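Field: COMPLEX_INPUT
Field: COMPONENT_COUNT = two
Field: RESIDUE_TOTAL = 571
Field: MODE = joint
Values follow.
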Amino acid sequence: MTASATHGAIDAVWRIESAKIIAGLARIVRDVGLAEELAQDALVAALERWPESGIPDNPGAWLMAAAKNRALDYYRRTKLLERKHEELGREIEAEHEMAAADFAAAVDSALDDDIGDDLLRLVFVACHPVLSTEARAALTLRLLCGLTTDEIARAFLVPEPTIAQRIVRAKRTLAETRVPFEVPRKDELAARLASVLEVVYLVFNEGYSATAGEDWMRPALCGEALRLGRIVAELVPQEPEAHGLVALMEIQASRALARIGPSGEPILLLDQDRSRWDHLLVRRGLAALARAEELDGRLGPYALQAAIAACHARSRTAEETDWTRIAALYDALAQIAPSPVVELNRAVAVAMAFGAAEGLALVDALASEPALKHYHLMPAVRGDLLVKLGRLDEARAEFERAASLTRNAREKKLLLDRASASYKIRVVK
Amino acid sequence: MRFMVMVRATKDSEAGVLPDEKILTEMGKFNEELVKAGVMLAGEGLQASSKGARVRFSGSKRTVIDGPFAETKELIAGFWLWQAKSKEEAIEWVKRCPNPFSGESEIEIRQVFEAEDFGAEFTPALRKQEERIRARAAAKKK
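Field: COMPLEX_OUTPUT
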């Protein structure tokens, strides 16, 4: 095996094993940052050793053992320091030997235990609300997905030092605020799970509708978010919202190919060629939604959004879309998770189900919403409805305004095209 | 990227011998691991080729050939569809798979084509398709 092939294999092993190793160590040392450093040390050892010795038959176990040794070394070193400070005698030294043996046994049992609980703890700590969502996202990709800081930086289009610093600070905050390495108590669970799912969906959206830059989407980031979502859903299989989020992401991702035109421009949902949707992902999304529905009669915000996405996924043509049902689902969503953006979407569904004039009335009622003031889809939707009502001059102004509000170059172009299209329609008339 | 991971047939699988309980249990555990890691997209086991058929094409002529087929080692007994970051990751997962049969067996890893793999050659077709969609959308608006 060549050196680069070995490195490729080590990368792959790291991707598969790193989260488990970090999670197992974190339970022992009670510090996620330290656990990650110890695991990294084990990786460095593998990078030194494996190109010569070849990859061991059970590379995961090898890494675990190496990380365990690093943990023991660390334990001995810190104990030794303490001992020097306290100038303890021989008896205590013997005691320490025993303590070290106990520690080794504890490490062994922790690493042999079912790793699922530790992974779940790791997810909850990495997504702890004490951290900003950006920090949570970076730390989660690093700890759970085994991405390097460089990979994370490229995914988010920010310089590598920014991400490195974000991760260092996040680890420090976790240590300083003494965030316990545990699954939250029952009364906290819902809020903490929401914090985890929020991070997963943030990563997905960063990939799916890139907020900045030239590309309309960055598929690698969507892929990571999907994988992360699937992992989380299997860690908390009794939580309907975890399956709801997976369903939502699978169905949205199924449209990835159809929502981009040949020269990279976005194609809107109703104009997409549905034969180009990824039907494997659609099926997986519908299955995940069914799991969420089986668990609980009342759907949460992610499951409701997934149910809306599923309405589109089940319609063979745009014309077949059940807009009345979609409007009702948005209504339900607005009740449990009220937000101006949901209201705006509800207005679109109402316009489709009951006519553009009714939709426009709802949109205009949102005009004073501060949250929508700089939201580019607000004028875009208004423009759409005005075109349908034949008010083309007003429509053009709205599309131009929408274009001025988006930071995404592809989206800006689409909106400007629509502005000039509504101008052309007027000329032809 | 996606990978199709195929389990090659063996004399036993072709004879319709079902895997024993030990292999089934181990395979179940492995599949569960794949699901928990968010890697597995789909997977199925296939019946012996005696229950299958082939259609041979020669120009415009089609000939149906019923199974079984002789070249056992070239046949497929089961497959998965995985989402992985690299071929190396898929290989590492396959190395963790229990031997699907007692004795010798083989698993093949093949990368699935994705849109970007088609490169420039795919663009004209895509463009035509795009024009069709636009025409349809325009007709609708009238």
